[in-house]
Design brief:
Elements (H helix, E strand, L loop, with lengths): L1 H13 L4 H35 L5 H30 L14 H10 L2 H34 L1 H8 L7 E2 L11 E2 L2 H37 L4 H50 L6 H29 L8 H10 L5 E6 L6 H22 L4 E9 L2 E8 L7 H5 L6 H10 L4 E5 L6 E8 L3
Parallel strand pairs: 3-4
Antiparallel strand pairs: 1-2, 4-5, 5-7, 6-7
């Protein structure tokens, strides 16, 4: 029991002498200063922007101030995260990078819905009381170190003086403690040691809370948000599967089924005409039945290809080369795929490329399409489809409409496997659509 008490006492008293304590105090000073200044700047900009945007004439200025506040909050969040990682030994990764939309409205919409920036603002708001405690930990340590030197100060400067020395105490609500003698200076030194030890443990405690805030608000998406995102993408996957089944049913009913019905009718009529001396009529019915059979086979082949293109059996690069060769606009393919993606990922990448080529053919007025497919980094497949057309494509604008096709439909399909679709299409072109997919779903 006595040994445990001595060990705990040793840990408590040794805390101010460790290298960790110096880092904790340095983080308290720097992090508290950045937090207090960031709070004042962000609150001032955000309050002014919200106030101005209430009026009709000031809406534009207010929105610009709000977007400026969000950009600044991301920078401040990055600074806090780096200080925490460097001084406290954390390893908090940066959140997802901001992806600007196209056009003024697209950029504004993306910026106002930037969740990491809003989380950084919440961190700055909570940081102010945390910064006060961090400053108090630094003040405790500084006052304690000065108080520890009081015996030396008394011997050198106040040995023959009758005036007392006031002991430094941070936030001394109970009045000041004064030293009137050389022995009293040792009491001040003991009090200073207590201040230094208290400052070390206050710094550790408040920094532990600050680390939790950094992980929660300045890091990647939390588990709860991740679960919510997975629920959303699961719902999209279910809707996409239901839409695919409806499309297959419609294609079978309106295409192959109708042709096969016509084939049966023509064959039945031909059978009735077998005894007819007019063989020309029989020949025409058989020709019509043959055409219907050929068309039905073509419809079934297209339907099967829409479910899973057989060309993917030879690999994604070969499939995209075949797709480019059948494009109405001249298209080139550059492929550098290391590890082969999963079949589901290959299928999504293929249909994304097919849809993007179809969009370019319909709307871009382009003369050339360039397709690049490669593994950008470990575990990520990147597809770039660009054209030299007139530009003006905007996935954010499409997503606001009640459509499940085009760029908005592709974005939803890609998100079901935690992928991402980005569109850069200024007015006048060129247009570049980037699809990032994991190699494994």
């Amino acid at each position: 029991m006595d040994e445990d008490i001595r060990r705990v006492a040793g840990l408590i008293l040794e805390a101010p002498l460790t290298r960790r304590n110096r880092r904790e105090l340095l983080y308290c000073g720097l992090g508290g200063l950045v937090g207090a200044l960031g709070f004042l700047i962000l609150v001032a900009l955000l309050a002014f922007g919200l106030t101005v945007s209430v009026s009709v004439l000031g809406t534009v200025v207010g929105l610009l101030l709000i977007t400026l506040t969000l950009r600044l909050s991301r920078r401040l969040g990055s600074l806090h995260r780096r200080l925490s990682n460097r001084l406290l030994g954390q390893h908090v990764e940066a959140p997802q990078r901001f992806q600007p939309g196209t056009g003024v409205l697209g950029r504004l919409d993306r910026r106002l819905r930037d969740r990491p920036a809003w989380r950084a603002i919440w961190y700055s708001l909570v940081k102010l009381p945390v910064a006060f405690v961090q400053f108090y930990a630094v003040a405790l340590t500084v006052c304690g170190l000065i108080d520890v030197l009081y015996p030396v100060i008394w011997t050198l400067f106040h040995q023959h003086s009758s005036s007392p020395i006031v002991v430094l105490e941070p936030l001394a609500f109970g009045g000041s403690f004064k030293v009137y003698s050389w022995l009293g200076s040792y009491l001040a030194a003991l009090l200073g040691v207590a201040f230094v030890v208290a400052g070390a443990w206050v710094a550790r405690g408040i920094n532990a809370g600050d680390q939790a805030l950094v992980r929660r608000l300045l890091g990647p998406i939390s588990m709860a948000e991740r679960v919510s995102e997975l629920e959303r993408t699961r719902a999209l996957a279910v809707d996409d599967a239901a839409a695919a089944l409806r499309r297959v049913e419609r294609d079978l009913h309106d295409g192959a089924q109708m042709r096969l019905a016509a084939l049966a009718m023509n064959l039945g009529m031909a059978r009735e005409k077998l005894d007819d001396p007019d063989n020309e009529t029989v020949r025409e019915l058989i020709d019509a039945a043959h055409r219907n059979a050929v068309d039905a086979l073509a419809d079934l082949r297209d339907l099967a290809r829409g479910i899973h293109p057989p060309v993917l059996d030879n690999g994604l690069a070969s499939a995209l080369a075949t797709l480019a060769a059948s494009s109405a606009i001249p298209a080139s393919v550059t492929a550098d795929i290391g590890t082969r993606p999963a079949p589901a990922i290959e299928t999504i990448a293929y249909f994304c490329a097919a849809e993007l080529i179809a969009n370019a053919t319909k709307h871009s007025y382009a003369d050339q399409i360039t397709i690049k497919i490669y593994t950008e980094r470990a575990g990520v497949l990147r597809l770039d489809v660009s054209d030299d057309g007139i530009g003006g494509a905007d996935a954010a604008l499409e997503s606001k409409q009640a459509q499940r096709s085009g760029l908005a439909g592709l974005a939803e399909r890609v998100s079901t496997v935690d992928g991402r679709l980005d569109v850069v299409s200024p007015a006048g072109g060129p247009t570049t659509v980037t699809v990032e997919l994991p190699l494994r779903a």
